[in-house]
Amino acid sequence: MGKREDYISWDEYFMGVAKLSSKRSKDPNTQVGACIVSENRRILSMGYNGFPNGINDDDFPWDRDGDELDTKYPYVTHSELNAILNCRGVTLEGTRLYVTLFPCNECAKAIIQAGIKTVIYSDDKYDGTPMNTAAKRLFNAAGVRYYRYESTGTKVELDL
User: Is-catalytic flag, 80?
Assistant: First the structure.
């Protein structure tokens, strides 16, 4: 009897972890998850978009429109930054970041500063916007490789 042949690839596995992490987000519009992986394929950290630790997310807005201080944008921490901040005591130099949405320019700066060298993303819905273009310029200038995850259509069902 030979080994099983229908196992998932490393990219499927780590993107799956990022997608599962996104399910922790309470954002009613956009749930984003991230997973940071070492060069030897060990998960170092995960994150999702949400409010900082200790902040009651019932006391802050989840709205996207209106006066800026009445929207989620000044308060929510993005999944990439959460994953970076959640990883303590370990260098992220040379690591890979799997993320369900292409990083914004602010997260791109944190990714570069952390030493992450590859970004694998599943969605780039803001492609062409100024912040997206700035993120790509930053990655290009810093030598951070990025590419879109190509879904294989593999379905994984979890009974939770």
Answer: yes
